[in-house]
Amino acid sequence: MLTIALAKGRILDATALILANAGYPVPADLGESRRLVLEDGRRDVRYLLAKPVDVPAYVEHGAADLGIVGKDVLYEKQADVHELLDLGIGVCRLVVAGWPHTDVGAVKRVATKYPRFTTDYFRRLGRQIEVIDLQGSVELAPLIGLADCIVDLVETGRTLAENGLGTLVELGTVSARLVANRRSYQLRATEVDAFVEALRQRAGGAAS
Amino acid sequence: MIREFEQWGYQSVETPLFEYAETIARGLHRDEDERLFRLFDREGRTIALRPEMTTPVARVATTLLAAETLPLRICYCAKTYSGRSGRAQEPVEVTQAGVELIGDSGPDADAEIIALMAGGLRAVGLTEFRFALGHMGFVQALFSVLAPGLRTRLRRALIAKDLVAYDATLAGEVQSLPADWLASLRIMPRIRGGKDAIEQARSIAFVEAAQRACDEWQELLTALSDHGVEDVVHLDLGLCLDHEYYTGITIEGYADALGQPIAFGGRYDALLAQFGNQAAATGCVVHVERVLAALGESSCGDPVRRLYYGANTRRLALAVGRELRRLEHRVAVAGVAPESEAGASAVGAVTGSGTGRSVAGFAPESETGGSTIADAAGAMNRGPWAMLANDGAVTASDEDFAALCRDIVRILAPGGDLSC
Questions:
Q1: pLDDT of B227 higher than 90
Q2: Which residues of B212-232 are buried (b: 16+ CB within 10 A; e: fewer)?
Q3: Ramachandran region of residue B348, left (φ > 0), alpha (ψ -120 to 50) or beta?
């Protein structure tokens, strides 16, 4: 049996859709359900519903054979896992945002949910900054003067706009990835490859 | 495990905990260089705690053992130190048990290393494990026709096991590479399996050197089959270990019970030349802590039997302890039993682990002031009291004493307590 860790929240609906299209239907009320483990005996898979930031840990330690999680989280956690497939869902832009006309080259304090990515980015710019590690509503930080700007994921940009903030620099796009535990990738290769192939056809179809 | 290594004719060596940083750097990848624990010796030279054993062993092999006849068979079990990478959840201190076979360039040597490692893992009780076999020569051959920048990016993606980045890099080269090369490169890291994987590898090997790697795989699998361990390996064409020194077959081992790999190894024919003595070499290490984690609870060996003595029975208890140890049982012999387990007033009870059996062994001696040892256990009807003189000396015949020890082993389950 394959155990697959799914990230709750932002990408869960799209994940459920892509799984269903690949022949692995999950219950419709996945998002509302309080259940943490769902079994599909017919297809011999089990789903774990985990907080996105925890998915890399479940997969790295082998508690789950596979996981579906955003590239943003993967980069931040630097988990030692196989990254097998770009599912092309949950696509978001990673941006530096703040008050309009902020000079990104001169900021000193940056609030973010992604301290690792932020530090790397500003280090490449040759800037030494103070990173303020927040867990949510990062937009609040520049509003009240806690930080000069933020590094955050943006889907539509509405939250930014409604608070008078704007995108300063586009850093890249992130999407959901299929990752595999190292042991499972080798020792359960047949099952893993079958699942990957089912999803690849689906993901390829979505992209074209 | 070391015993298994030695039975295969491998000689156990120890190397210094510190090496000159420049020595260690010969076998390192750039990222690992940053993770070294460095310090200075009295002359101000930089030394470092060894982060792995292959390079120190290569140094010893080329300098101290230069006079010996090749091939050399070396094994070790040693602590290694490396700072956290932030990537793998590695502890700073890792115990590595490994083997190196130096001076033999054929696939037979690689097969011996793998069969030996499989034997070692079985010797410590691990049953569900497998080795993935890659070949640096195959990967390098396919990459050799590519531009250096592209080669580096692809290699880095393989080491990071990031197939998304690997595919994206290739997708950017659609214009510059022949379609059949591109197709081969795309499929390459996804090929895993047994003999069929070699056929697939041949079908995409568009460079002569890659065909030679396939021949080596073929020979290796045949040799492993002769060793009787072909079922513990499979091929993984994309397996790319992040040590620069690997030149041929690469090995990564996995246990079913653990999410992380437990073993690493491969052929490193160029490393010894760096110490001024060209010789082919191959080897493999296991991370002992990970093997123990894979083994779980059963890894700690037999539980300890505990034997407690009173004022007059120390001599007997110690003699019994010696005999039990000679029979390779683990036994601790101590004074008065802890209050909770076999109280001072209670008759010494055997508390077998999980058996629920309670058999009185020897009677208490203290309160009553007597020196008799009552035999409450039917199994001990030979009368152990006859084995003690008034001064506590053991007077029993060898035969009776051996019988007593056998009885005690039977009554006193591993993990249990017995007072006398």
A1: yes
A2: ebbebbbebbebbeebebbeb
A3: beta
Chain A residues with beta carbon closer than 8 angstroms to that of B190: 193
Measured between alpha carbons, how far is A180 from A203 in angstroms, rounded to an integer? 17
Of the candidates A72, A55, A79, the one whose C-alpha atom is nearest the C-alpha of residue A117 is: A72
In single-letter form, the type of residue at position B292 comes to L
Interface test with B, best of A2, A48, A91, A186 (most B CBs within 10 A): A186
Kindly determine whether residue A63 and residue B86, on different chains, have CB atoms separated by under 8 Å. Answer: no
ipTM for the predicted complex comes to 0.83
Minimal-distance CA residue of chain B relative to A61: B259
Q: Integer distance in angstroms from the first to the last C-alpha of chain B?
A: 37
Comparing CA positions, the residue from B201, B299, B224, B301 lying closest to residue B255 is: B299
CA distance A195 to B8: 42
Per-residue pLDDT band at B61 (split at 50, 70, 90): confident
Q: How far apart are CA B373 and CA B392, in angstroms?
A: 11
For A:73-112, CB contacts with B below 8 A are 78-86
Do A80 and B260 count as a contact with CB atoms less than 8 A apart?
yes
How many contacts (CB atoms, under 8 Å) link A and B? 65
| Per-residue model confidence as pLDDT tens digits over B12-42 | 999 999 999 888 887 776 666 777 889 998 9
Burial readout A91-127 (b: 16 or more C-beta within 10 A, e: otherwise): bbbbbbbbeeebebeebebbbbbbbebbbebbeeeee
Quote the pLDDT of residue B27.
Answer: 74
B86 Cβ contact partners less than 8 Å away, ≥ 6 residues apart: A78
pLDDT of B78-121, one tens digit each?
Answer: 999 988 765 556 788 999 999 999 988 889 999 999 999 999 99
- Residue identified by tokens 């130190």 is B81
Give percent above pLDDT 90 in chain A: 60
